Amino acid sequence: MVHIVIDLEMNPIQRSMREVRKFLLEEVIEIGAVKLDENYQQIDEFQCYVKPEFSSISKHITNLTGITNEMVADKNMFVEEFKNFFKWVGGWDMKIYSWSSSDINQLKSECSYKLKQFDVRKLERQWIDIQKEFDDRIGLHNSLALRYAVGAINRNFEGTHHTALADAANAAAILTLMQDEDNFFKTMQPVIDLLKPQEISQSIGDLYPELKNLKFD
């Protein structure tokens, strides 16, 4: 069995597309993923841009992700690129992970609208939300953004935020650490201690500068 950590970047469908928006509010414009072996060691990676079918890329999304309309103009649309992605995965002998549930929710919507023959329900059954498992394990009641979770495990974020492959690789680093429970809790103990009100003696920002502007999403 392999472990696939995926991240998607999406673009909103413009409001004038009323009929489409009844079923689909966003489209995937980038897929990034890393493949881990049975020991959670990275063995491969996948990245592609996807040309949106219904709307040009908004300025907000370009500012957030760096993806422009020019970058996707000659790329394949979702159906072909998702098929390429699943061919790279290599079949159903896998677990698939993402940071939060937004990616599986997007695939459920987009596959249901554009790729009806794909068994997205089976994909959902094999999907694991790393963010939820991470938050539950350390006792967080709010969802920690990926960049701050990476800071919490005492790592520098590799690559650029909101680029699909970098986000997938950083989420995979957290997933790998979580497989060693003793090492995970040893690494996270300062943060866990700070979650106990009676033991707060310094701010989380003092421990981890990356977390000074702690945000949840």
What does this structure look like?
The chain has 11 helices and 5 strands. With 217 residues, it is α/β, with parallel strands linked by helices. The protein has a 5-stranded mixed sheet. The longest helix has 15 residues, at 164-178. It starts with a strand and ends in a 10-residue tail after the last helix. The model is unreliable at 198-202 (pLDDT under 50).
pLDDT averaged residue by residue? 91
Low-confidence stretches: 198-202
- How are the strands ordered across the major sheet? 3-2-1-4-5
The biggest sheet amounts to: 5 strands, mixed
Class based on secondary structure composition and strand pairing: alpha/beta
Number of helices: 11
Q: Percent of residues in helical segments?
A: 40-55%
Total beta-strand segments: 5
In short:
By secondary structure, the chain is of the alpha/beta class. The protein is built from eleven helices and five strands, in the order βαββαααβααβααααα.
What topology does this entry show?
Elements: E1 2-12, H1 18-21, E2 26-36, E3 42-49, H2 59-65, H3 69-72, H4 78-89, E4 94-98, H5 102-114, H6 120-125, E5 127-129, H7 130-138, H8 146-152, H9 164-178, H10 181-194, H11 204-207
Parallel strand pairs: 1-4, 4-5
Antiparallel strand pairs: 1-2, 2-3
Task: Please describe the structure with a list of short key phrases separated by commas or semicolons.
11 helices, alpha/beta, 217 residues, globular, 5 strands, 5-stranded mixed sheet, 18% strand
